[in-house]
Amino acid sequence: MATRAARTATSEDTWSADELAEVRKRLLHEIEELNADITRAEAELAAGDASEGAGDDPADAGAKTYEREREIALTLNARDLLAQNERAIARVDAGTYGECESCHKPIGKERLQAFPRATLCVACKQREERR
Ligand SMILES: [Zn+2]
Question: What does the longest C-alpha to C-alpha distance in the chain come to?
């Protein structure tokens, strides 16, 4: 590592240890919040199961189904975000954070500060969305 101290990469895309620690902390904090969300949604779903069959009103049952589906969708979304955050932390630890997974160019600090779990640069992301 010391032999690379003189490298010329002083661009804004270079991450310092402090900045990486900061982004890692942010990701961990989000993981905690997402875990709390998932736990809460699952508790609500479990509570819904317990009260099922209590009301015979079809409209009421429909509303409950809708509510239930919404909770499930939220949970899935939270789990997806959780996985992305965990992946980002793994990338911090592996030293590949900030590198585009597709073209291996720097993603750009500005973009990562807005979307810390981004794994693709803007160009690759746009290409993927067009598919
Ligand atoms: Zn890219």
Answer: 74
Q: Give the model's confidence band at 84: pLDDT under 50 very low, under 70 low, under 90 confident, else very high.
A: very high
Q: CA-CA distances (angstroms) from residue 68 to 47, 78, 120, 121? A: 11, 15, 33, 36
Ligand 1 center to 124 CA (angstroms): 4
**In this structure, what token pair is assigned to residue 126?**
């746009």
Question: For the whole model, what pTM was predicted?
Answer: 0.75
Q: How far apart are CA 48 and CA 70, in angstroms?
A: 12
The DSSP string of 71-131 is HHHHHHHHHHHHHHHHHHHHHHHHT-TTB-TTT-SB--HHHHHHSTT--S-HHHHHHHHH-
CA of 2 from ligand 1 middle (Å) equals 29
**106 bridge partner residues:** 99
Angle between helices 17-51 and 58-94 (to 10 degrees): 160
